[in-house]
Amino acid sequence: MRVLVIGSGGREHALVWALARSSGVTAVIGAPGNGGIAEQARCVRADVGNPRELADVAEAEGAALTFVGPELPLVNGVADEFARRGLKIVGPDARAARLEGSKAFAKEFMARHGIPTARFAICASAAEARRLIASGRFGFPLVIKADGLAAGKGVSLAHTSREAEETIERFMVQKVLGPAGERVVLEEHLTGRECSFFVFTDGEFVLPLPPAQDYKRAHDGDHGPNTGGMGAISAPHLLDAAARERILREIVEPTIRAAAREGFPYRGILYVGLMLTREGPRVLEYNVRLGDPEAQAILPRLESDLLEIGDALVTGSLSRVRPRWSADATVCVVLASGGYPGSYHTGYPIQGLEEARRREGVLIFHAGTTRAPDGSFHTAGGRVLNVVARGRTVVEARERAYAAASLIAFERMHYRRDIGAEWSS
Questions:
Q1: Confidence of residue 93 (pLDDT cuts 50, 70, 90)
Q2: What is the pLDDT of residues 254-276, one digit of tens each?
Q3: CATH architecture of 2-93
Q4: N or C end: fewer C-beta atoms under 10 angstroms in the chain?
């Protein structure tokens, strides 16, 4: 079977890697892919925000199944376009993708169906947001979220009224996020431990993946601006069986049932960002695809066939699949361009990849790279590489990941040194 993977980051490289291991896959196509993906798949140019163009690629390449990495094509209706053409795709339609495409829609959806989340208010103007902030309704710290897609950079935590005002100014007046910031969601700040919870679902049956934890801040100690993600870990002990069952019972299954009742059956991958509070799990956000970099930590633990899971999902037979997952822990460290998530330079040569790749238990997933005709790689994005290591424990996986990362070099390379550190004592 020929399989298409939409996207160009580390998450998509992890999907390509997992699919390439399947005996049922004859070829993998990346649209548009990146330098590392090109080593394992045929890469074709494509605009990931254009559903028609992506469907054209699937038809031209004879793709029997498509996996979608990023959220933009899903929000723009790529699953709808594929359905119109009779093409199989792992991902929800545009109506269901609103759960990620609009923070306001998602919060109102949770409120309608009693799904536990933080108290919130939706503001359609800067004046309205300022009045609500001044009222002290939620106190401080205050979470401020842009309504639309912002590549992981649309959430701000304000500790004072001045910081809140600055965020409202940037999002709603200066419009630094474009249309994404035309509305904002103000939320109470929850405390606890964050967790990323993923499931495959065919609209009825729910198949959980191992949990993961990501690290969004740019610098050690969870300091600095939010990013798309600077690292992740996945390990069996992140959630015990009781917590997992509670999340499924109180959050995931009600979400799937409610989506069907509202007329948009959810089929694809659902990612629930959670805060594990003393009162129980609370939803921070919905995403309608695998996380990046969580996918890079989770997929190396899959011991079953990803193609089989995807095919069962699109044919409504997911209940027949029983995937096996390794008991190992994984740690993913993101190597980024200096300046990310702000301005940064690209085009720098990357050294040490082969030596790092030869280390025991290590995988290298490319994110922002290009491959030159001579086979060398150069930086081409904010997040450049993902160094992933497996180990019997988080401690072992972490040691392997950082040992491999130390072998790689490019101009102004930056990475966090504390990924998984809190699980290493």
A1: very high
A2: 999 999 999 999 999 999 999 99
A3: 3-Layer(aba) Sandwich (3.40)
A4: C
